[in-house]
């Protein structure tokens, strides 16, 4: 039998546990199909932090880093911890210390009548202004944005490889006209990587012009590469084309595999504390994130099966409230599971 794949589960906060619960049957389904899969459940989030003072202990981090292959993550963010220190200490630590440079967010139509799109956003996931370095003093605040050539190159090489494989055009979003140092580095690395991919139709665009063009004609875009901040904004806008944040999946990975744990799958909608516990959250983003993780593991049949089940459920009219329907989180998860292939 193949070596077992060990996946860690972290529910986090708010609706994170609710949507993760609807993805777990997909793991059981994959196991029933013969995939050698082990699960590690971890308690980290706001409740655990408030009860114990722990955020993500070093022992747990090492277990994730060296003893797991991937992480399925719900969401973090809780108004009881207004400075967000536990969210930074869990999710941002995992992204940065596991070197999950590539954040991948696909945007494809899910519902009838939506525009025909095939957009994939490749967002650098460890640097930029999300490096949490800066200063605050009376009347003045500074947030630093850090960009390093290794991280930029890993992100762009992954984006170019996807563009070449899928025969899609690639666009780099930047603001090098103003951010001359950091985004100037992005342009230099982009030109160097482009030389290795002469068959890819590649261009650069100022981010403001790209956003305008994206709204006017999203079908004209294929692969979009961007730094951490711009990639965050662009991918969230793309989610609006296909039903909103509730249906948007993501996968972060380390293309250079510095550790055993080299991937983290999560929906992009956040913890939504205002609807937590009300059976209102849309589980589609979480379930599609699980499909992305299956594909990353090389389980193409299982990835395609989950995606087909989501499409079939939506095609029969299954909808959560955010999509104009009446199903709750559990009802939507059940509707999707009915369409998983045997």
Characterize this entry briefly.
The chain is an alpha/beta fold.
Characterization of this structure:
The protein has helices at 16-32, 46-52, 58-67, 85-97, 149-166, 182-194, 207-216, 228-241, 284-296, 300-315, 329-337, and strands at 5-12, 37-42, 70-75, 102-107, 119-124, 134-137, 140-143, 170-174, 202-206, 223-226, 249-253, 263-267. The strands form two sheets. A ten-stranded mixed sheet has the order 2-1-3-12-11-4-5-10-8-9, with helices on both faces. Helix 1 packs across helix 9 (284-296) and helix 9 packs antiparallel against helix 10. Strand 1 (5-12), helix 1 (16-32) and strand 2 (37-42) form a beta-alpha-beta unit. It has two domains: 1-104 and 249-342, Isopropylmalate Dehydrogenase (3-Layer(aba) Sandwich), CATH 3.40.718.10; 115-241, 3-Layer(aba) Sandwich (Isopropylmalate Dehydrogenase), CATH 3.40.718.10. The radius of gyration is 20 Å and the shape is globular. By secondary structure, the chain is of the alpha/beta class. The relative contact order is 0.17. It is 41% helix and 19% strand.
């Amino acid at each position: 039998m193949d070596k077992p794949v060990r996946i860690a589960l972290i529910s986090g906060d708010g609706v994170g546990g609710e949507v993760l619960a609807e993805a777990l049957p997909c793991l059981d389904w994959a196991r029933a199909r013969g995939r050698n899969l082990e699960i590690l459940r971890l308690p980290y989030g706001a409740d655990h932090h408030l009860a114990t003072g722990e955020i993500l202990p070093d022992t747990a981090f090492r277990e994730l880093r060296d003893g797991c292959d991937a992480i399925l993550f719900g969401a973090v963010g809780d108004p009881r911890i207004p400075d967000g220190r536990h969210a930074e200490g869990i999710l941002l630590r995992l992204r940065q210390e596991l070197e999950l440079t590539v954040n991948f967010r696909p945007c494809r139509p899910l519902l009838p009548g939506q525009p025909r799109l095939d957009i994939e956003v490749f967002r650098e996931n460890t640097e930029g202004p999300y490096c949490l370095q800066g200063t605050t003093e009376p009347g003045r605040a500074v947030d630093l944005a850090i960009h390093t050539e290794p991280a930029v190159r890993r992100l762009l090489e992954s984006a170019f490889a996807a563009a070449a494989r899928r025969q899609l055009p690639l666009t780099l979003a930047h603001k090098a006209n103003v951010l001359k140092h950091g985004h100037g580095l992005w342009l230099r690395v982009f030109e160097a990587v482009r030389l290795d991919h002469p068959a890819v139709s590649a261009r650069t665009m100022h981010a403001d012009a790209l956003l305008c063009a994206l709204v006017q004609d999203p079908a004209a875009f294929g692969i979009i590469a961007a730094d951490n901040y711009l990639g965050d904004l662009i991918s969230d806008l793309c989610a609006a084309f296909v039903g909103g944040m509730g249906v948007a999946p993501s996968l972060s990975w380390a293309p250079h595999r510095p550790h055993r744990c080299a991937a983290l799958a999560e929906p992009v909608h956040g913890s939504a504390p205002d609807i937590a516990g009300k059976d209102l959250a849309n589980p589609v983003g979480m379930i599609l994130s699980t499909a992305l993780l299956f594909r990353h593991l090389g389980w193409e049949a299982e990835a395609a099966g989950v995606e087909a089940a989501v499409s079939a459920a939506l095609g029969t009219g299954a909808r959560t409230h955010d999509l104009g329907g009446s199903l709750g989180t559990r009802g939507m998860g059940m509707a999707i599971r009915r369409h998983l292939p045997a």
